[in-house]
Design goal:
Elements (H helix, E strand, L loop, with lengths): L2 H14 L1 E4 L5 H17 L14 E5 L19 H6 L5 E10 L25 E7 L11 E2 L19 E2 L7 E5 L4 E2 L10 E9 L9 H4 L2 H6 L2 H6 L17 H5 L22
Amino acid sequence: MDTATLSQHLQTIEDDGYCIIENAIEQDLIEEVRETVARLEADLEVQPRGNRAEGYATKRMYNLLGKDRAFWKLPTHENVLPFPEHLLDDECILSGTTCMHIGPGEVHQGLHSDDGLVTVSRPRIPFMVTTIWAFTDFTDENGATRIVPGSHRFDHEPGKGEQIEHIPAEMKAGSVLILNGGTWHCGGANTTNNDWRLGISVQYCQGYLRQQQNQYYSLAPDDVKAMPQRLAALCGFGLYKGIMGHVDGASPGRFLGAHEVDEIAYAAMRTKNGVAES
C-alpha cells in the first residue's frame, strides 16, 4: 500500500473510527485460509460455544497461529500491519487471532469496544486495533460486523439496553475492516437460511498491555523458532522498547532459543566495556 493511500485510510479512521480496505487479501490466501478453516473445524469438532458474546450459531477458534502456519501470513500482511503500527506504535504486539464463522440463525451479538477493559477515560488514544478479514462476502443478512461510526470519540462504553444506530460493514471477500479499539461494534445477526459468514479477527494492542489471548502457552517452541522476526516480535517474544517482558534480563525469544528475537534487556544503555551509561 502506498503512502498516500495509507494516509487517506488513516484519516478515515480518525474521523469515523474505522475503514474498509478492499481487495486487501490475495485470492490464493483466501482459498488457503478457507480450506484450512474447514479442515480444522472438522478435525477439532468445533461447535458453537452457546453464549451471547461468542455466539449460539457461530463456530469460533482462538489462538490460530498455533493451529496452522497458514495463519502466520495474516498479522504481518503488508496491506494491514501498517495500520496498527501507525495507530499504536511500531512495537505493538498481537493481542489475539480469532476465527468467527457465523451461521444461519445467529443473533445480534451486542455492541462493545475491544479496548473496553482499559480504565483510562474516554475519548482516548487507541489501546487496541482490530482488523477483521472477510473470507466470504459480509452482508447485512449474513451477519456483517455492525459499527457505530464516530463512537471512538464517545465518552463512555455502551450501556446495557442503550439504543443507538449502527450500520453493517458490508464488504466483499478479500476485504479487511480496520477498527480503532474504542469503536463500538459487534457481530450482526445472520438471518439467512444457509449462508455462513467467515471472518478472522487479528487484534493488536500497545506493547505494554496484557494480550487478550496468551501467545506464550499457545505456541510450541519449535513454532516460535521457525517464525520470521517480525511475527515472533508481534507475539511478544522480543522486548518492548528494549526492556519490558524480559526473562532474567533477556527476551523470551532467547530463553526459547529463537535467534530471530534474541535480545538483551537494557542493551541500548550498555557500553562496550559493560559499564552502564549514566
